[in-house]
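Listing S7. Sequence submitted for prediction.
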Amino acid sequence: MNGPKEEIISSLPFFKVERTVVWFEQKQQQSTHVIQLSGKQICTPSHTFALSHVHDVSYRPFSNGEGLFYLHTSQGLFTFEVKTDPSHFITAYRKLRGDFFPL
């Protein structure tokens, strides 16, 4: 039996683009996923990081409104393509860590 689910504090949608070549034609398929922040961890579709293993989160915007969200962890740097400004997620993370400063 599973324990109680932890409350999600913030979530951030991101997208992945997969490119394949079939018979000299390149095809792209885009899928949408979510990063979730709870009181103890950050979960992506492929990894779960305890907050104690997350060093920082940051964002690099592009001129077209999209950007890259960076998750700095003890296991390395993970990069996610986002279409929305993740400042709400970053602020929530920094408040949890106690090192809040305005973006």
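Caption to Listing S7: primary sequence and predicted structure tokens for the chain studied. Residues 8-97 form a domain with the PH-domain like fold (CATH 2.30.29.30). The helical segments are 87-97.
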